[in-house]
Design a protein that fits this description.
The complex is a heterodimer of chains A (343) and B (296). Chain A is mostly helical and 343 residues long. Chain A is built from 14 helices and no strands. Classes of the chains: A mainly alpha (343), B mainly alpha (296).
Chain lengths: 343, 296
């Protein structure tokens, strides 16, 4: 075979590959979801702008404080461009976003992208840590509970997980502070050490916040996974496996858990957005320099460009998490790929 | 699968079928404990918060004497002691519970009625109505509740009514989404087609055929969301956006106690315990009803 022929063959294969991808149900699903996401994000940004411009007070007043004279406030308003009508300011901002420019923070003058780049990693690290804590607890406990339905381990773990998911994360945070920072000073009560400085100290400073978010989540995931595994155990393929002489743990882990993880994956994905929202209050309690803390400061300062950017980050997290879950689901499970879309 | 006898299911490592606990349940009070215990706790909570202060005189929850501040529990006249400004803790717990329960109840009722109607209409009518309503709700769901809560507290002033309003923006879309999903499942059933073929009007379809069938799902969801709303109300207090001090709510009591947490941890633990028990009771009640009505 000559070289040109093999090139032609591989080019042909490539076009076929592309054509196959274009008809791939998971990709089409992704594209459709992405198209829906754009107007939703636009709506969120417009709503934020409306809310912020209806609110009494603006950044100029907030920055100058209560003692400022109206003339001073007006001066700063002119300087910051706050005298322009709201729709014009929104148009300017939207034009910037489309070209990838999120603008500058009014309060600090820093670029909004830089602030978010500094704050977002802290929040993401906290979320990942909390997810690891919750899943590391939920999977083994759910397996132990499902191993003998109605047994002691099952009833005990279901009771504890119900109690766990009923605790408010801020209450748990305070209890953890009382026990593990005040009475037994194992972990710091507040403060944050960046990951780049000292990995051990960084993890220590994030442990209590991650436990406060992760433990209630673990209760939630345990109950879901346990219920899903119980459903799987009723399926014919489990009976077949048992009849072939596969051991009970083997059936549980290799057969039932594998199928149940799909359900868990969906819930984890759908919850990711809420989880990032939950960090706002936890960051406040533990004084962590994450995106939630920046959000509260920005709201107090009426720092509209920063508020808009953070709202967009939070809303995109919700939308993207849902999207990724759908796609991952379709990629992993052929039954969904060729059937209706999961809802 | 359902006709495998119970003993064999157990030896196969399968769960016994649903009819076993139901059979055990029939005619025995023990079978009703899953619903009974949480229901009893909820009734007790409501009675303690709404009836007790009316029947037995309690010190006022606000305006305590600063010279009585930080009394220990079991002090004369103050069973659970006083807080850092001298208010009776028990009285604040009960009146605060009133605020928390009222807020959660109001938000959930509004969510159930308004969200339920929107969701059922969107699901039943389908087409453009559905698409527009759902995109609007998507925006509200993706919109951080915090911004709205702040906007409302800032422009209308903090207060219980405004907290309820802010939380409704959060609850209504979620109820609507639930109601829509339930209506979609219902819409294709034969009895719905039959009713439509009889020329039943839309409002009658909604009231007589859809509402009774999606209500169990919405009620169990509402019970689970009672706890969630009480927790969020507390979270708003942490940011100074909830029910304003000195009026008590469990959320703002926790927030107030947090400021002196190492000296007087009980001021945090008492309202936390009440909040925890009520959230747990609502969750257990919702869960038991869901299991009983075979909902997912």
């Amino acid at each position: 075979m000559t070289a040109t022929a093999s090139v032609a063959v591989s080019a042909d294969r490539l076009t076929r590959r592309v054509a196959w991808l274009a008809t791939s149900p998971s990709l089409r699903l992704a594209a459709r979801r992405l198209l829906i996401a754009v107007p939703v994000l636009w709506g969120v940004s417009a709503l934020t702008f409306v809310v912020m411009s209806v609110l009494p007070g603006n950044a100029a007043q907030q920055l100058l404080g209560a003692q400022a004279t109206p003339a001073q406030v007006h001066q700063l308003e002119l300087q910051l461009g706050l005298d322009k009508p709201a729709w014009l300011r929104y148009g300017d901002w939207l034009g910037g976003v489309v070209t990838g420019n999120l603008g500058k923070s009014i309060a600090s003058g820093q670029s909004v992208t830089a602030i978010i780049g500094l704050r977002l990693p802290v929040t993401l690290e906290l979320v990942v840590y909390a997810l690891v804590v919750s899943l590391a607890l939920a999977v083994p406990v759910a397996l132990l509970a499902a191993h003998r339905p109605g047994g002691l381990a099952d009833r005990l773990s279901m009771g504890i997980s119900m109690a766990g998911l009923s605790v408010a994360n801020y209450v748990l945070a305070l209890v953890l502070v009382i026990v593990l920072a005040v009475y037994l000073p194992v972990f710091p009560a507040i403060g944050f050490v960046p990951l780049g400085e000292d990995v051990g100290a960084n993890l220590r400073s994030l442990t209590l916040p991650a436990l406060a978010i992760g433990l209630p989540l673990a209760g939630f995931y345990t109950r879901l996974l346990r219920a899903d595994i119980a459903d799987q155990m009723q399926e014919d393929y489990v009976v077949t496996a048992r009849a072939k002489g596969v051991g009970p743990w083997q059936v549980l882990v290799r057969h039932a858990l594998r199928n149940s993880l799909f359900g868990l994956l969906t819930i984890v994905g759908v919850n990711l957005g809420t989880l990032i929202g939950a960090t706002v209050i936890i960051e406040q309690i533990f004084a962590l320099p994450g995106i939630g803390q920046a959000f509260i400061q920005a709201i107090n300062n009426r720092d509209v460009p920063l508020i808009e950017a953070i709202v967009l980050v939070l809303a995109s997290a919700v939308v993207l998490a849902n999207l990724l879950t759908d796609i991952l689901y379709a990629v992993l499970d052929p039954r969904i790929r060729y059937g209706q879309r999961p809802d | 699968m359902a006709n495998v006898p119970t003993d064999e299911r157990l030896s196969l490592g399968l769960e016994p079928t649903e009819d076993t606990p139901a059979a055990a349940r029939a005619g025995s009070w023990r079978g009703h404990l899953d619903v009974g215990i949480p229901a009893a706790i909820i009734v007790l909570l409501f009675a303690a918060c709404f009836v007790w202060p009316a029947l037995f005189p309690l010190p006022k929850p606000v305006g305590g004497n600063i010279f009585d501040a930080n009394l220990r529990p079991l002090s004369p006249g103050h069973i659970l002691g006083t807080d850092t400004v001298g208010n009776d803790v028990l009285s604040r717990l009960l009146y605060g519970g009133r605020t928390s329960l009222e807020t959660a109840l109001a938000v959930n009722l509004i969510g159930l009625i308004l969200g339920g109607t929107i969701g059922a209409l969107a699901g039943y009518l389908g087409g453009a109505v559905d698409a527009i309503a759902m995109r609007g709700l998507d925006v509200l769901i993706a919109f951080p509740a915090l911004v709205l809560a702040l906007a409302i507290a800032d422009s209308l002033g903090p207060g219980q009514g405004h907290t309820i309003l802010a939380l409704c923006f959060f609850a209504v879309p979620i109820f609507a989404r639930n109601a829509r999903a339930a209506t979609l499942r219902l819409r294709e059933l034969t009895f719905m087609t039959a009713a439509r073929l009889c020329g039943t009007r839309t409002w009658r379809m909604l009231v007589r055929h859809i509402a009774p069938n999606i209500l169990p799902q919405l009620i169990t969801f509402g019970l689970l969301s009672m706890g969630a709303i009480m927790v969020i109300e507390g979270a708003l207090s942490f940011l100074g956006l909830g029910v304003p001090l000195p009026d008590p709510s469990w959320g703002n009591m926790i927030f107030q106690g947090q400021q002196s947490i190492s000296a007087t941890p009980l001021l945090v633990l008492f309202p936390s315990a009440f909040l925890f028990v009520s959230v747990l009771a609502f969750n257990l009640f919702g869960d038991a009803l869901r299991a009983r009505w075979n909902l997912r």
